[in-house]
Design brief:
Elements: E1 15-20, E2 30-36, E3 43-48, E4 54-57, E5 59-64, E6 69-75, E7 85-91, E8 100-103, E9 111-117, H1 132-144, E10 151-153, H2 164-173, E11 183-184, E12 193-197, E13 203-207, H3 212-217, E14 235-239, E15 242-246, H4 252-264, E16 270-274, H5 296-299, E17 304-307, E18 313-320, E19 323-324, E20 332-336, E21 355-359, E22 367-374, E23 377-384, E24 389-396, E25 401-403, E26 417-420, E27 423-424, E28 435-437, E29 440-443, H6 445-452, E30 455-459, E31 462-467, E32 470-475, E33 480-483, E34 486-489, E35 495-496, E36 502-505, H7 506-512, E37 515-520, E38 525-530
Parallel strand pairs: 9-10, 10-11, 15-16, 16-17, 17-20, 26-38
Antiparallel strand pairs: 1-2, 2-6, 3-4, 3-7, 5-6, 7-8, 9-22, 12-13, 14-15, 18-19, 18-20, 18-21, 22-23, 23-24, 24-25, 26-27, 28-29, 29-36, 30-31, 31-32, 33-34, 35-36, 37-38
Bound molecules: fe (ii) ion (2 copies).
Length: 541
């Protein structure tokens, strides 16, 4: 039989039913659903056990997708009682949903649980993705932790979010789950991804900016408190003594300005963030240039920043301004959620200098993080579907400590380490540490380039370096580098240092190759970054 996309068009009966927090979770809750375009009105009927039935009418807006137009409904009852279970049905007078329930947040909550998942997108089959495994995995998880208050994601909720069939599949995968538990999604790069022609052959890939399908379908599902023009993909909400800042994948500078205010004014004990792209990533070929350092100020006001994208797990030391610390008050813990839906790894990954914990998740397993907030203590456990625990740690704000203890590296004087994209050059830099002369940093660039897969062509007193399509020749005793585009003033002379290697001033040299660098003074290491995701390999003629 010929393969067909599974369109699963909206019918008169409500589907895509989802509970979410769009305001004060103590007194309100939003129920979102979808129905066909000829259903013009809808309402939520809700009641407490043994209570009177109440109704609230829904906001209705047409959603024009790549294949169809349907209506999206949002109903937000207000003045609810805190800490109360409400039973509800949604839909039109003629077509009602089954009965579900949600619970409002209690007063003065300082102890609660939630789960975080990421990258539960599915691409098998590309035109009819099957989310059954996710559904079973989450139901199993919720059976273990029925008292969680909501599900937070770090994006890639769908594999191609600019196509309706992808949302259909994801919502189907969440059936029996998000009718009960608020589903707080962050937008990932796959959620705003689309193809101009999708079926039968996808061509002309694009990324919607803003994330059109995400923002349209969820317009009133989440708080409309993000920067103008970038709602709903950017928003924040509160639960108990915690604040959650959900970053989108677009407009890092704007997000930073918004986040500084949003986080600065939240007045909560715990400040969590979710941002799809990991700032302190595990891929040997990634970079944090897309968001960092543009979002550094906002992100570094957080206790924990959840991310995803790479489909592996890692947890960083507390980090501030590229320096690695031990105590939670000293920086932000970057927490990369493993893949939530048995997906293959997105890329190869490796342990990095900034990781306190790492698990590559190259096995086809699924992961969720259980977050347990209790006053000024908080535990996060990274659980695999088969019962193994990839990581567990506790932040204790009162004691200002993280357990289990990990000590961020501090390298010795005269032993300044060099890292490339967070990877220790160890062997090739064994006896060639970075050198600081009169406040200027120099590194043995040829050894680093060789490690990174670049070429180093050596002649007497000279070396020509090639990487990522750039080339430069450095000469001992000269402050000029020769490139195919002309001479570049390095500002300082190249000199012969440890092991007879040529040492280049790091700042000007890195610029030639479009690289960035930073010196982490506390830890005494230099990291060099390059935005390219290519893997440099020296060609073999
Ligand atoms: Fe992903
Ligand atoms: Fe992604």
């Amino acid at each position: 039989m010929e393969r067909q996309p599974n369109y699963r068009f909206a019918t008169e009966k409500p589907d895509h039913i989802m509970v979410s927090i769009s305001g004060d979770a103590k007194t309100s809750m939003t129920v979102t659903w979808r129905a066909s375009i000829n259903v013009e009105n809808g309402y939520l009927e809700y009641y407490e056990k043994d209570g009177e039935k109440m109704q609230v009418s829904a906001i209705v807006k047409p959603f024009k997708s790549d294949v169809n137009t349907s209506n999206i409904f949002w109903a937000t009852p207000q003045n609810l009682k805190p800490g109360t279970r409400y039973y509800y049905t949604c839909g039109s007078a003629e077509n009602r949903s089954a009965e579900y329930y949600f619970e409002t947040e209690a007063e003065n909550v300082t102890k609660f649980k939630f789960i975080a998942i990421s990258d539960h997108q599915k691409d098998t089959d590309h035109y009819n993705p099957d989310y059954n495994a996710l559904n079973a995995f989450l139901k199993e998880t919720l059976a273990k932790h029925p008292d969680i208050k909501f599900i937070l994601t770090a994006g890639d909720n769908t594999n191609c979010g600019q196509h309706e069939i992808q949302w259909n599949a994801m919502f189907e995968g969440m059936e029996g789950i998000i009718e009960y538990y608020p589903y707080m999604m962050a937008c990932g790069n796959h959620d705003n991804r689309g193809f101009e022609f999708y079926f039968p052959e996808e061509t002309n890939r694009y990324y919607a900016e803003p994330a059109a399908f995400f923002n349209t379908q969820l317009e009133y599902s989440y708080p409309k408190n993000g920067p103008e023009g970038w709602q709903t993909e950017i928003y924040s909400f509160n639960y108990g003594n915690a604040h959650f800042t959900v970053f989108g994948v677009n407009e890092p500078e704007l997000m930073n300005e918004w986040a500084k205010k949003d986080i600065g004014e939240c007045g909560k004990t715990w400040k969590f963030g979710s941002h799809h792209f990991p700032v302190y990533y595990a891929g040997p070929n990634l970079s944090n240039d897309d968001t960092y350092p543009m979002m550094r100020e906002g992100m570094e006001m957080l206790d924990v920043l959840f991310s995803g994208h790479e489909h592996n797990f890692s947890r960083s030391f507390p980090i501030k301004n590229e320096e690695l610390f031990d105590r939670p008050s000293q920086g932000t813990v970057h927490y990369e959620l493993g893949n939530g839906n048995f997906n293959p790894p997105g890329t190869k990954t490796t342990d990095k200098v900034w990781h306190a914990s790492f698990y590559p998740q190259e096995e086809q397993v699924s992961m969720y993080a259980l977050v347990e907030v209790d006053g000024d203590k908080m535990r996060i456990t990274a659980n695999l579907n088969d019962g193994r625990v990839a990581d567990e740690f506790v932040i204790d704000k009162e004691k200002d400590e993280i357990r289990p203890y990990r000590t961020a590296p501090i390298f010795g004087e005269g032993r300044t380490r060099v890292f490339y994209k967070g990877m220790d050059l160890a062997l090739c830099n064994m006896s060639t540490p970075a050198v600081c002369r009169d406040g200027v940093w120099y590194i043995a660039l040829a050894t680093m380039f060789r490690f990174a897969g670049g070429e180093d062509i050596r002649e007497k007193g000279k070396v020509t370096l090639k990487i990522y399509g750039k080339q430069a020749t450095f000469t001992e005793g000269e402050s000029i580098a020769v490139t195919p585009d002309g001479n570049v003033d390095l500002g300082y002379e190249v000199f012969r240092g440890f092991e007879g290697q040529l040492y280049m001033p790091v700042d000007a040299s890195c610029k030639i190759f479009n690289m960035k660098w930073a010196y982490a003074a506390r830890n005494n290491f230099i990291t060099v970054e390059h935005a390219s995701e290519h893997h440099p390999i020296v060609p073999q003629p």
